[in-house]
Amino acid sequence: MRLTWLFLLLTPLGAQQYDLVIRNGRVIDPESGLDAIRHLGISAGRIEAVSAAPLDGRATIDATGLVVAPGFIDLHSHGQDAENYRYKAMDGVTTALEMEVGVADVDAWYDKRKSQTLINYGASIGHIPVRMRVMHDPGAFLPTGDAAHRAATDAEIAECRRQIEHGLARGAIGVGMGPHYTPAASRWEILEMFRAAAHSGAACFVHLRNAGDESVAALEEVIAASALTGAPVHVAHITSNGLRSTPRLLRMIAEARARKLDISTELYPYTAAMSAIESALFDPGWQSVLGIGYHDLQWAETGERLTAESFARYRRTGGGVILHMIPPSALDAAIASPFVMIASDGGLRNGKGHPRSSGTFARVLGRYVRETGALSLIDAIRKMSLMPAERLQQRVPAMRNKGRIREGADADLTLFDPATVTDASTYEDPARYSIGIRYVLVNGAPVVKDGKLQDVTPGRPVRAPIE
User: Fold this and answer.
1) 251 — alpha (psi -120 to 50), left (phi > 0) or beta?
2) Which of 107, 329, 411, 461 could share a disulfide with 444, CB 3.0–4.6 Å?
3) Does 462 map to a domain?
4) Given CA atoms 85, 403, 237, 437 in this order, what sign does their dihedral have?
5) 98, 54, 102, 93: which is closest to 76 by C-alpha?
6) CATH code for position 300
7) Is the pTM of this model over 0.85?
8) How many C-alpha atoms does 286 have within 13 Å on its Cβ side?
9) Rounded mean pLDDT, 434-453
10) d(Cα 64, Cα 417) in Å, to the nearest integer?
11) Domain check: are 348 and 444 in the same one?
12) Count: domains in the chain
């Protein structure tokens, strides 16, 4: 009896005990503007309390000196496997989505990952893989045969649209497209895919048809398609399509947004791109379009710079190549824009690839917040969490509970040291974990704890309602 009364004296009446309490962290919520020392109470995978007073928890994390941010949402992540999810988690990412290329079989893609992932996952229904399937293209990830180089018949266009609509009915987050990789797809064909998206209230996530000086016309194509159909449009990696024309594209998007067109865009914070050397991106004329030569290409597998001979050889075998082509001024202009969000376009394979695959989000915090001051901390967090969530939430209502720190929101959280956070990956060694990411929670479960990965699988699907 004495112990019972002692417990009551020490515990405030009505006090709740949470599964986990994060204490004394600098909590930054980009939706409300909160930036203050707070305590978070988490139970059953959700944030149940955001408190200025201490809270009681069965487990605790002392976040003194750390920023507590909403988990980062990567809208453009090709690496959708255990290897890549590890690097994402160590970069503060709690949700990684394959939106640009997308997938052809939505059900099979989600079923493969059920209850097996470190972080949350999701995908679009992709015009590229659907076109490849309809036209029996031999390519693996990107088309190399008819799906890249032959105009579709009316019947094939109709079948592509039917499969797109089926994928949307099965809960695909949006419609992925890449006319740069399917240059034979007519503007009418692309418009038909926009119509399919509009019919289901989905956005189109598009790699523009062309780059450099031709990117203005390419952006006009998707702005027109969006205006005609009503489908929102998200433009992938604006800097690697715009190149020196990036400021013009930013102005066009700003003008379209001012006229209430639902258009958004993204970048990755690097001056080099990466793609498949066997793809249509490198069809004859690529040097003129991209403004680069063989010496600007770096073979991801070995780090070597290419020559005409090695380019021809690797073009036959296929593989990933890094393109050093984005002007720093284009990157500076885009990252400062208030409507440009952050996405990695990443994907490692056996440790080979582009440093954006493992370092994108920590690089923004280290270089563009702490070192150059190009972004405030809250603006950077907004670009990496709230803005991606808002882009998706009309189609996927569950996203209204991501990218925020408030009562009732999902406990997807990233805790980092603002004094040390930075990327460690390089073009020569891209498979290096970021520095300064101390804790990452996915649906309330720590997947990174005290800077170390945990062997857990709390990731859940991000998926639109199935019709």
Assistant:
1) alpha
2) 411
3) no
4) negative
5) 98
6) 3.20.20.140
7) yes
8) 20
9) 98
10) 10
11) no
12) 2
Based on the domain organization, do 380 and 421 belong to the same domain? no
- In the chain, the amino acid numbered 269 is P
| Helix runs in 135-214, H state only | 146-149, 154-169, 187-199
Task: Please check whether residues 41 and 190 belong to one and the same domain.
Answer: no
Contact 177, 148 (CB under 8 A): no
* CATH number, position 426: 2.30.40.10
Residue 282: exposed, middle, or buried by beta-carbon count in 10 A (0-12, 13-18, 19+)? buried
Residue 64 and residue 79 in one domain: no
How far apart, in whole angstroms, are the C-alpha atoms of residue 205 and residue 174?
7
What is the sign of the dihedral through the CA atoms of 397, 402, 408 and 410? positive
Please tell me whether residues 305 and 176 are part of one structural domain. Answer: yes
> Residue 460 domain-assigned?
no
* Cα(453)–Cα(118) distance, integer angstroms: 9
Q: By CB neighbour count within 10 A (0-12 exposed, 13-18 middle, 19+ buried), where does 83 fall?
A: middle
From first CA to last CA, the distance across the chain in angstroms is 58
List, in sequence order, the alpha helices (H) in 318-355.
328-336
What is the Cα–Cα distance from 409 to 39, expressed in whole angstroms? 15
Query: How is residue 383 annotated by DSSP?
Result: I
Are 223 and 147 members of one domain? Answer: yes
Same domain, residue pair 200 and 58: no
Alpha-carbon gap, residue 252 to 234, rounded angstroms? 13
- Which residues form the domain of 221? 72-384
Residue 402 located in a structural domain: no
User: Phi/psi at 269 (nearest 5 deg)?
Assistant: -85, 55
Structural domain contains residue 394: no
CA dihedral 115, 119, 125, 129 (to 10 degrees): -90
pLDDT, tens digit (0-9, with 9 covering 90-100), for 214-254 = 999 999 999 999 999 999 999 999 999 999 999 999 999 99
Span 177-228, pLDDT tens digits: 999 999 999 999 999 999 999 999 999 999 999 999 999 999 999 999 999 9
Q: What is the mean pLDDT of the chain?
A: 96
Please calculate the CA angle 206-212-214 and round it to the nearest 5 degrees. 75
